[in-house]
């Protein structure tokens, strides 16, 4: 009788060990995914900042061209 109880206990312990091992593997996989996603976030943030700077530069260039065009149109109206 006690041998059967011991076998059941051993089976439950082995099942617990297997479950823990599986969970540890899942944790490692999730840590790798998290690191990869964090890297993507950093790259996206860098790209976003770069695009914002480029957008600002293009807006400034557009403003300069608009001012030149207005000046030229003003000269044409004078003539």
From TrEMBL:
<dbReference type="GO" id="GO:0000917">
    <property type="term" value="P:division septum assembly"/>
</dbReference>
<comment type="subunit">
    <text>Homodimer. The ends of the coiled-coil dimer bind to each other, forming polymers. Interacts with FtsZ.</text>
</comment>
<dbReference type="InterPro" id="IPR009252">
    <property type="entry name" value="Cell_div_ZapB"/>
</dbReference>
<feature type="coiled-coil region">
    <location>
        <begin position="6"/>
        <end position="68"/>
    </location>
</feature>
<dbReference type="GO" id="GO:0043093">
    <property type="term" value="P:FtsZ-dependent cytokinesis"/>
</dbReference>
<dbReference type="Pfam" id="PF06005">
    <property type="entry name" value="ZapB"/>
</dbReference>
<keyword id="KW-0717">Septation</keyword>
<dbReference type="GO" id="GO:0005737">
    <property type="term" value="C:cytoplasm"/>
</dbReference>
<keyword id="KW-0963">Cytoplasm</keyword>
<keyword id="KW-0131">Cell cycle</keyword>
<keyword id="KW-0175">Coiled coil</keyword>
<protein>
    <recommendedName>
        <fullName>Cell division protein ZapB</fullName>
    </recommendedName>
</protein>
<keyword id="KW-0132">Cell division</keyword>
<comment type="function">
    <text>Non-essential, abundant cell division factor that is required for proper Z-ring formation. It is recruited early to the divisome by direct interaction with FtsZ, stimulating Z-ring assembly and thereby promoting cell division earlier in the cell cycle. Its recruitment to the Z-ring requires functional FtsA or ZipA.</text>
</comment>
<comment type="similarity">
    <text>Belongs to the ZapB family.</text>
</comment>
């Amino acid at each position: 009788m006690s041998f059967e109880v011991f076998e059941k206990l051993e089976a439950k312990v082995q099942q617990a060990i297997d479950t823990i091992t599986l969970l540890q593997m899942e944790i490692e996989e999730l840590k790798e995914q998290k690191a990869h996603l964090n890297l993507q976030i950093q790259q996206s943030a860098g790209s976003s900042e770069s695009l914002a700077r480029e957008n600002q530069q293009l807006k400034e260039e557009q403003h300069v061209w608009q001012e030149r065009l207005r000046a030229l149109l003003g000269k044409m109206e004078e003539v």
